[in-house]
Design brief:
Chain lengths: 307, 294
Amino acid sequence: MLKLALRRIAGLVPTLLVIITLSFAIIRLAPGGPFEQEQALAPAVRANLERLYGLDQPLHVQYFNYLRALAHGDFGPSLRQRDFSVRELIAQGLPLSITLGLCALALAVLTGIPAGIAAALYRSPRTDLGIATLTALGIALPSFVTGPLLALVFGLHLKWLPVAGWQAGAPRYLVLPALTLALPVAAYLARLTRASLLEVLRAPFVRSARARGLGATRVLWHHALRPALLPVVSYLGPAAAFVITGSLVVEVVFGLPGTGRYLVQGAIDRDYPLVMGMVIVYGALTLLFNLLADLACGWLDPGSRHE
Amino acid sequence: MNEGVAVLGRGGPWADAARRLRHSRLAAVALGILAAITLLAVLAPAFSPWSYDSLDWQHLARPPGLTAAHWLGTDRLGRDLFVRTLHGVRLSLLISVLASALSLVIGVLWGAIAGFAGGRIDAWMMRFVDVLYSLPYLFVVIILTTLFQRGSLAVLLAGLSAVGWLTTARIVRSQTLALKRREFIEAARATGVAPMAIVLRHVLPNVLGPVAVYATLIVPQMILFESFLSFLGLGVQEPQASLGNLIYGGAQEMESAPWMLLAPAAFLVVLLLCLNVLGDALRDAFDPRERQPS
């Protein structure tokens, strides 16, 4: 199992390298440059700036220089936020972004999966319709709609929670953002869990367990739940990716000082190292979460380990 | 392709699906609402005295009301929100349908060619798809639309299609792989039909079923992407209205004028909900075995 995990992690490196190369190419192919947007700089000043950041060298030289620095953990300086390196900027924002993402994911798992199990166990036309409506709504509502609506209701009208903003060490400010981010994932998890558990409960091995005289609770916990959760766990990888990218817009909606704003602002400013740093960090996180979900599946389902 | 649909229509799957679809009451309701919204979006701006960018200085930031001059109220500049919202619906629908069509064409061709060619070509083509898949897709769209001329509809379309075709390509490839071993393809090959002709004449018509289902699910996704980008200020730009930038504008004013947020948000949610319901019903109609008990 450990060997498999290590081999899979090593397998991520080429993919990450392709991501780096592709985004490097896209960013550099785009018209404009970091020093072209404000009022025009004197040509000599611009040439000096470009020489300082190595932007005057041929593109392939820049590319290999970038890779070499990256191998030492150096993302380069931010071209627009003077005196900050990209690593500093990301290190400032990332803890908040990751906290938000993990809270949302935990919230979604803790509500979505039990709701799905309950919906599968207590079936009636009314609960079926209820869960179908709720999950359809949860999946259809985008977070930039639910976010402002939640802020409107819980922040402005009921005044239970802050509308937006952030104070270090005050978890109240994370409640609405995490809820916004968790909603679609929870809805999808509930739907997935319900469908998959219903299918497993119809399987012959469950019927034979019941026939041997085991109670419904024991059959659920010891026999049905583990196979039923397989598709749910494999969805957690894409769900984590969704939460990671989704945190971008939620941070904008609620004015949280995470890393989300750097991608858009960096791209608008042509801050090459900042955009590259964001793509690499978020890309690596996405790959990592997909890998974790895969490994968890292997742990749940012994049959898939020996592929 | 039309010829293919006609041939299949006589046989089982399409007629079966149509019959099952007619029995779904929920889908009928969704279709009705969609048709009504589309009709409204196309016709209503023509009948209103206001246009999406005309300013009414007598009514700034007015709340909605049936007897008021503006049904859904006005924004801070006195622009009619009913007209602007419908204008946004029209633009969102247009962009997402075009982007869906574009990504379906690319995806179907890519998947069919990869699946039919097989071997090393297939491996490379699908590896390319896998790598693009592992990129955080929103990042790609954001970077594309920001770097190349912000606000241009062509760039927005290209960005949306760039991520939309990946899933289609995968679905079509796996369908093609299954089809390839069938006798009629072998017969075509044995009689010396060129590979590209086989793909176009025999493979494509037969993969259209699953693609049609996926197509109805990709449209709401595109609407979501488009309004997401416009919300971030990267898509449709003022004074043009899209559901995304209307919601962004409304969220800024929600303390004093909640209707500016609620009107476009309601349209977006109803639109997405109906499209999703319709897509689910269509999927069930085409493949009753995979029906999610719902």
